Amino acid sequence: MNRKQFFDNLAISWTEESKNFIKRKKIIEKKIFPLLKKFIKHNDVVLDLGCGTGILLPYLKSIVGDKGEVYALDFSEKMLNKAKEKFGDKFLYIKANAYNMPFKNKKFNCIVCFDTFPHFVYKLKVLKEIKRVLKPKGYFVIVHSENKNIVNKNHIKTGGVIKDDLLPEEYKLFLWFKKIKFTIKEFLDNKKIYFVATENK
Predict the structure, then answer these.
(1) What CA–CA distance (Å, rounded) separates 126 from 139?
(2) pTM for the whole thing?
(3) What is the pLDDT of residues 61-87, one digit of tens each?
(4) Which of 43, 155, 177, 194 would be 144's cystine partner, CB 3.0–4.6 Å?
(5) What is the distance between the alpha carbons of residues 137 and 181, in angstroms, rounded to a whole number?
(6) Which domains are delineated in the chain?
(7) What is the pLDDT of residues 4-27, one digit of tens each?
């Protein structure tokens, strides 16, 4: 099974009635949403990079408002189809790879990777592409509904194509940010969540 097949299959198994989905939604509402509001403004243009079936999309839209725009990008067509089924034309859905996004330079005010960043095999390459499409002074956010240790343990336990999909050690991540001239604005790795917000210089 290749990576795309894995996530296509996952899209089928994910349901909004599952305990995991309900748990993630509660953490988003209580912990993550208040943090995102610090880095996303009304009328912003925002990208949910690796949006999956769209759990984060309505929260992003509630921040940017009617005149703001939220793009949902994923390389799994089945993930995007599930998001479209739930939300219709409220969002702009893009089937593409994170390494080569079909956007002009400096398009977004904020780019969010929710439960996604470990799955990019070539992380620095993705970060460089994120920098290209992010506006100066724009924000890039990596966020998970669990801490780094739990995320990494879960991926190792699942095995297969995602067994090596890990959140990097802080020193490595921070070196990448320094290399592409992203300034770290906030970093949390606690019992509930993992959250990194950076600003594009």
Answers:
(1) 15
(2) 0.96
(3) 999 999 999 999 999 999 999 999 999
(4) 194
(5) 11
(6) 3-8+40-200 (3.40.50.150)
(7) 889 888 877 776 657 777 888 999
